[in-house]
Structures are given as C-alpha cells and as structure tokens.
Amino acid sequence: MEEEKFCLECGEKIIGRADKKFCSDYCRNAFHNRQNKSVSNLIRTTNNRLKKNWRILQSLNTQGKTKVHKQSLEKAGFDFNLFTSLYTTQKKSVYYFVYDQGYLSLGNDFFMLVKKEV
C-alpha cells in the first residue's frame, strides 16, 4: 500500500507520480519563489542599480569620450561602488566599466567617460 503524499506548499493530497512533491504548477512556483525571494531581491536590486549607473554614464557621454566633474555624476545618483569590470592600461591607469560605459579618474574630481567599442 502506497503512503499518501501531501503538497509541500498547500498541504493538499497529491495524486499522481510517486515522486511528485506539489499538487500543481502554481504551488511548485509559489514554493520556489518563496525559497529564492531574498537572493532574487538582492540580484534584482543590484542589477537595477547597475542599469542606473549605465544610464547615467550614457547620458553624460554623448560623444564617446567626455570629461565630467564628479559632482555631475553624484548629482545624477551615480554609485561609484558598483561596476561590472576593470581595465588596467600598460601605464597602470584603471578604467571602471559598467557594461560598455566606463570612467577613469583624472584627479581633482574630474573623470574621463569612455565607451568601449564592442
């Protein structure tokens, strides 16, 4: 005689395969969404902040290479702690990139904005 199984999400009796854990796709999705909620929120928030940084760089760098003051970036809400990659030149200059938009500190609160050609 088979043991009765119950849905991990709603507790309803499961009818069907022996290895089935959920009574429906709705319950399966709800269970996994709840399990992954904190990780998903962190990733979503970080991606949204990266996209905001990218939009700021793109809007200020209309020529492909532009010099701007740090205050312009800060006023737009740019987060200097979020970037997707680094590029170090032979002269040891470090460019910070947010996808294809990058910036280089020139000193005295000025930055060179650049666009990476893909």
Could you give the topology of this structure?
Layout: H1 25-35, H2 37-60, E1 65-69, H3 70-75, E2 85-88, E3 94-98, E4 101-107, E5 110-115
Antiparallel strand pairs: 1-5, 2-3, 3-4, 4-5
Question: Could you describe the 3D structure shown?
Answer:
- It is a single chain.
- This protein has 3 helices and 5 strands; from the N terminus they run ααβαββββ.
- The protein has a domain at 38-115.
- The protein starts with 24 loop residues before the first helix and ends with a strand.
- With 118 residues, the protein is of the alpha+beta class.
- Strands 1-5-4-3-2 form a 5-stranded antiparallel β-sheet.
The helix tally amounts to: 3
**Order of secondary-structure elements:** HHEHEEEE
- What is the averaged pLDDT score? 93
Distance between the ends: 63 Å
What gyration radius follows from the Cα positions, in whole Å? Answer: 24 Å
Low-pLDDT windows of residues? none
Multimeric state of these chains?
A: single chain
Proportion of helical residues:
25-40%
- What is the strand arrangement across the widest sheet? 1-5-4-3-2
What's the shape? rod-shaped
Please summarize the sheet with the most strands: 5 strands, antiparallel
